[in-house]
Write a structure and sequence with these properties.
Residues 29-92, 93-157, 170-232 form the SLH domain. It comes from Paenibacillus planticolens. GO terms for molecular function: hydrolase activity. InterPro entries: Chitinase_II/V-like_cat, GH, Glyco_hydro18_cat, SLH_dom. The protein is an alpha/beta fold. The chain has two domains: 43-227, no CATH class; 232-440 and 501-535, TIM Barrel (Alpha-Beta Barrel), CATH 3.20.20. Helices cover 36% and strands 17% of the residues. An eight-stranded parallel β-barrel has the order 1-2-4-5-6-7-8-14, surrounded by five helices. Strands 10-9-13-12-11 form a five-stranded antiparallel beta sheet, with helices on one face. A hairpin with a 2-residue loop joins strand 12 (482-489) and strand 13. The longest helix has 19 residues, at 153-171. The chain is globular, with a radius of gyration of 26 Å.
């Protein structure tokens, strides 16, 4: 297909955005910092932490990377990154004597105080002096304490008795004499784990910590924990996915997009597998056999996105007929499906929510031995998904955190801050052990000529070719964490945002940070060799 595949119809949510007068109608920052550039070594760290809400900027869209950090400010960063900030004052066990309950930092300081991570900072009167600039040695020590807390008693003992001394000798910082032996067992653990480092002139233990250093330290801390967290991978084998058939061994589950709801008249409906792009293809046997050989679970995906979906959810006879039709295909032994994925899209009205839940309950009752996955759209404008009830009913909830695309403002499909916000909103209702982050491999292309812009969805192959061609400026667009490609030709000025391997990696990082069940890949045929190499790690 041509690279110039025009987007004729946008999701209904985008109309709401347009009527609001701005695409940035979200409570997240979607603008870059004016003082963090592509040339800054800390750019990735700052924007990653900003996207997940751990760090903030100042008015005027500045980050002020060279400003120093106070003790209480760093403690807040640490506790937030560790998911260990307390949620209410009544649950807290106390705090240093100069941090009262009315202070903004109280929940974070109290949580750290309860874990005895900051006791070394207190003076003889039990005061923290929270507004003091925190030093690099204090940072290393509190981080080291937090890290050691997660180790076994045996491992901690080995380190505190001998390990830290060996680390000190190995590092041989020029200014090691200025470091406290009392804190050495903690500070050198942060060094040992790669969270902090020195330079050719030493560790600089008494130097105040800057905001750019804080971002790097907190990011490394998160990254260390993220690396140890495994997640499941669900691949959607739908729409020209045959080239990716050999990738099935990299997955935990394949969802075959081979069916859709057929509902054209009241009182009757069925599972359609013969028409439109959601159909059982010729040669389906090879795909099923490959999945079996890879020993991955096989879901049948059922799609529907027509406007009369809300009518279907009130049509009990049609639902009964559809469920029986679906059950017949799902249980057909020649396919060997092991579960079902329901992808009913476009439920914007809240009054559809109870109807959808009743339908899902009826479906689950009809196929009690088959795990059920339910795909949902972000709840900003799609109010027809009762996330709490769906989270209780479904074995897996797939969050389609994409298609934020907006024509006028050129907001792309899946900016990382919006994906993060959608995940957080969903986690308020769905257990993380059930939640899967949906990633859509796509590109958005705006072509502007004579003051008018049109939006297209180019094919991935065409985008990859453009990346290799001369005459295009490209780079990672912040804070979106999407590849941006800009070029000019006889059609006009082209601006593209692309979900490339680097941006996919950041979304995997996000899913791991929240401890989600997994990620899903829409759709397998769009993913490149580079993407699969990432996913094989």
């Amino acid at each position: 297909m041509s690279i110039f595949k025009k987007v004729a119809v946008q999701a209904a949510a985008l109309c709401v955005l347009a009527s609001a007068g701005t695409a940035y109608a979200y409570d997240v920052s979607l603008k870059p910092f004016t003082d963090v550039t592509d040339q800054d070594w800390f750019q990735n760290e700052v924007y990653s932490l900003s996207a997940i809400g751990i760090i903030d900027g100042y008015s005027g869209l500045t980050y002020k990377p060279d400003n120093t950090l106070t003790r209480e400010a760093f403690i807040k960063l640490l506790m937030t990154a560790k998911h260990q900030e307390a949620t209410s004052a009544s649950a807290l066990a106390g705090a240093p004597s100069d941090v009262n309950q009315g202070r903004w930092s109280y929940p974070f300081v109290s949580a750290a105080y309860e874990r005895k991570w900051i006791d070394f900072m207190l003076d003889s009167q039990g005061m923290l002096h929270p507004e003091n600039a925190i030093t690099r040695e204090e940072v290393a020590s509190v981080v080291g304490k937090a890290l050691l807390d997660s180790q076994t008693a045996e491992a901690r003992n080995r380190w505190t008795v001998q390990g830290w001394k060996e680390e000190k000798e190995k590092r041989n910082f020029a200014d090691s004499g200025a470091m406290s032996d009392k804190l050495g067992q903690y500070a050198y653990y942060a060094v040992n784990q790669g969270i902090m480092e020195g330079d050719q002139t030493g560790f600089h233990p008494q130097q105040s910590l800057t905001r750019k250093e804080a971002a790097a330290i907190i990011y490394r801390l998160i990254d260390t924990e993220v690396a140890a967290h495994g997640i499941e991978k669900i691949g959607f084998y739908a729409i020209r996915s045959y080239p990716a058939i050999k990738r099935m061994p990299l997955l935990n589950q394949v969802a075959f997009g081979w069916s859709h709801l057929a509902y054209t008249a009241a009182g009757t409906a069925k599972l359609e597998t013969d028409t439109t792009e959601y159909r059982i293809p010729s040669g389906w046997e090879e795909a099923v056999q490959t999945a079996d050989a890879a020993k991955v679970d096989k879901d049948l995906m059922v799609y529907y996105g027509e406007k009369n979906l809300k009518d279907f959810l009130k049509d009990e006879p049609a639902q009964k007929a559809f469920i029986q039709s679906l059950k017949a295909v799902l249980t057909d032994s020649k396919y060997g499906f092991t579960g079902v994925t329901m992808d009913f899209e476009g439920l914007m009205e809240a009054d559809s929510a109870p109807d959808y839940i009743q339908f899902l309950k009826a479906l689950k009752a009809a196929i009690p031995t088959y795990p059920m996955s339910v795909a949902v759209q972000p709840d900003y404008y799609y109010k027809g998904y009762d996330l709490k009830e769906i989270g209780a009913l479904a074995d897996t909830v797939i969050l389609m955190a994409y298609d934020f695309t907006h024509l006028d403002s050129k907001l792309p499909s899946a900016p990382l801050p919006l994906v993060n916000d959608a995940v957080k909103r969903t986690l308020a209702y769905v257990p993380k052990e059930k939640l899967v982050l949906g990633i859509s491999k796509q590109a958005n292309q705006w072509i502007t000529a004579n003051g008018q812009s049109e939006l297209f969805n180019p094919d991935i192959e065409a985008v990859e070719n453009r990346l290799k061609a001369p005459g295009a400026n490209q780079g990672l667009s912040m804070p979106f964490f999407l590849r941006e490609i800009v070029f000019q030709d006889d059609r006009g000025r082209h601006e593209m945002y692309y979900e490339d391997t680097t941006s996919i990696e950041k979304k995997v990082w996000l899913a791991k940070y929240y401890g989600l069940k997994g990620i899903s890949l829409w759709y397998m045929g769009n993913y490149t060799d580079s993407d699969w190499a990432l996913l094989s790690k």
